[in-house]
Write a structure and sequence with these properties.
Blueprint (H helix, E strand, L loop, with lengths): L3 E6 L7 H8 L5 E4 L8 E5 L2 E5 L12 E4 L4 E2 L1 H13 L8 E4 L3 E2 L2 H14 L11 H10 L13 H18 L14 H15 L3 E3 L1 H10 L4 E4 L24 H8 L5 E9 L2 E3 L12 H9 L12 E3 L1 E2 H11 L3 E5 L9 E10 L2 E3 L11 E9 L16 H14 L3 E5 L7 E3 L3
Parallel strand pairs: 1-10, 1-11, 2-5, 2-10, 5-7, 6-8, 7-9, 11-15, 14-16, 15-19
Antiparallel strand pairs: 3-4, 12-13, 16-17, 16-18, 19-20
Helix pairs in contact: 3-4, 3-5
The structure holds guanosine-5'-diphosphate, 6-O-phosphoryl inosine monophosphate (IMO) and magnesium ion.
């Protein structure tokens, strides 16, 4: 019996999970997504190809590896088919190495309208959702009113769909809106619904099974499985900066319920973190920068959302949040991403504690939004060297190694992987 290793985000998303999953896929037989849906945007870069994935796992560009969309994931059939088409364009045929859980829930067109209506109703307290229908679809799942992919094969699917749609329309109206107040990717509800319903017919040609049995059988046979997280710890429904979070369990515990694996079968937990911080959407961000350094991190890190194109907010590395994330996830190895983005900073900073009401604190406060917290920084000398083509740890600049050691010391966890560019090749794996 083998174990399932997990790779997930420790910050507010976009740490570079897609790149690392693609890089690590060579060592696994199966790559499985366990949470989130089209709100995710995971970027891969290899052989001159740059590709973004949303619902499909980041192992898909390894033809001999099986990829699984687990029960914890939300599937929007039209967005899914667009992803399939863009994979065809770069020479991949996901039909051959992709399994979908029949228990994964569907995102309906009206979920996306509800997302927009909820956000509008919140006014300046809006979450900054990706507007993919995530919150409303998970709400239906928990309320036991959702539709699952397996339902599309049932005779009464159309009726169930109509009932749920009408229920959604009533909810939108109860907020004081009409469905005509919003569009879905520039289309009216009835235009989008036509495409969505035909996508439902089209996805029937994919392999839709009970992936829980599949995954457990594969574990029994000793196959190696990598679970790929979407979003990240600080966006987790329970442990993130609530209510500015997503609606799923993004942490390691989510793997058990999102794939159907017992806790005793969890192996390594790879936690990805940028060498600095970013956040997209609203919500507290203690180390956020509003100065030239923040702009520089944004420009040099190309910090624009993969799913929505929005500019990401930037800031220095927050060790308080990072330690919290490592604790909750049981991180065994850190994967340090995008340190090259800091190549030409004369000084880099790391927040090691917060100042709150005149006292130094080292824990995340209950309500990050209203808490009076100011980061306390330690300065580190920059390395002022172009590092992207360096192939071994020892050859990295000394000042960078000092910064990496400070992260290891602060978290008590070894940095096993250092990523030096978006490309699969520009990666240093230590301790191997
Ligand atoms: P994910 O959501 O965690 O998969 O991350 P995203 O794909 O949303 O955002 C990460 C961005 O950083 C993508 O554009 C990647 O191509 C890029 N990237 C990943 N690793 C590195 C790195 O080490 N250095 C640089 N400069 N870019 C990176
Ligand atoms: P990946 O997997 C960064 C953010 C949104 C918003 C909040 C809720 O690429 O790291 P939602 O649409 O889930 O209801 O939005 O969460 N968010 C992400 N931010 N990366 C992501 O995914 C995100 N998925 C959701 O911006 O603030
Ligand atoms: Mg992303």
């Amino acid at each position: 019996m083998s174990k399932v290793d997990i790779l997930l985000g420790l910050q507010w998303g976009d740490e570079g999970k897609g790149k690392v999953v693609d890089y690590l896929s060579k060592d696994y037989d199966i790559i499985a997504r366990f949470n989130g849906g089209p709100n995710a945007g995971h970027t891969l870069e290899f052989n001159g190809i740059k590709h973004a994935l949303h619902i499909i796992p980041s192992g898909i560009c390894h033809k001999e590896k099986q990829n699984v969309i687990g029960n914890g994931v939300l599937v929007e059939p039209y967005i899914f088919l667009q992803e399939i088409e863009s994979l065809h364009k770069i020479g991949f045929k996901p039909e051959d190495n992709l399994l979908i859980s029949n228990k994964a829930h569907l995102i309906l067109p009206t979920h996306r309208l509800m997302d927009a209506a909820n956000e509008k109703a919140k006014g300046d307290k809006k979450i900054g959702s990706t507007l993919k229908g995530i919150g409303p679809a998970y709400t239906d799942k928990i309320a036991r009113t959702g539709l699952r992919i397996g339902d599309i094969f049932e005779e009464d699917f159309k009726q169930k769909y109509q009932n749920l749609k009408q229920n959604h329309i009533r909810q939108i109206e109860s907020l004081g809106f009409s469905v005509d107040d919003f569009q879905i990717d520039g289309k009216t509800l009835s235009e989008y619904e036509t495409i969505w319903l035909s996508s439902i017919e089209e996805i029937k040609r994919f392999t839709i099974i009970d992936t829980t049995y599949y995954i457990n059988e594969q574990l029994q046979e000793g196959k190696k499985i990598l679970a790929e997280g979407a979003q990240a710890t600080m966006l987790d429904i329970d442990f993130g900066s609530y209510p500015f979070v997503t609606s799923s369990t993004t942490i390691s515990a989510g793997v058990c319920s999102g794939l159907g694996i017992a806790p005793s079968y969890i192996g390594k937990v790879y936690g990805t973190t940028k060498a600095y911080c970013t956040r997209v959407g609203s919500g507290p961000f203690p180390t956020e920068l509003f100065d030239e350094d923040g702009e520089k991190l944004c420009t040099q890190g190309h910090e624009f959302g993969v799913t929505t194109g929005r500019k990401r907010r930037t800031g220095w590395l927050d060790l308080v949040a990072l330690k919290y994330a490592c604790m909750i996830n049981g991180v065994t190895d850190l994967m340090l991403m995008k340190i090259d983005v800091m190549d030409n900073f004369p000084t880099v900073k790391m927040c090691e504690s917060y100042l709150s009401n005149g006292k130094e604190i080292k824990q995340i406060p209950y309500n990050m939004e209203n808490a009076d917290i100011k980061p306390i920084y330690k300065d580190y000398a920059g390395w002022l060297t172009d590092v992207c083509k360096i192939k071994d740890y020892d050859s990295l600049p000394e000042n960078m190694k000092t910064y990496i050691s400070a992260i290891e010391k602060g978290t008590g966890i070894a940095v096993s992987l250092i990523s030096l560019s978006p490309d699969r090749e520009d990666t240093i794996f230590r301790n191997k």
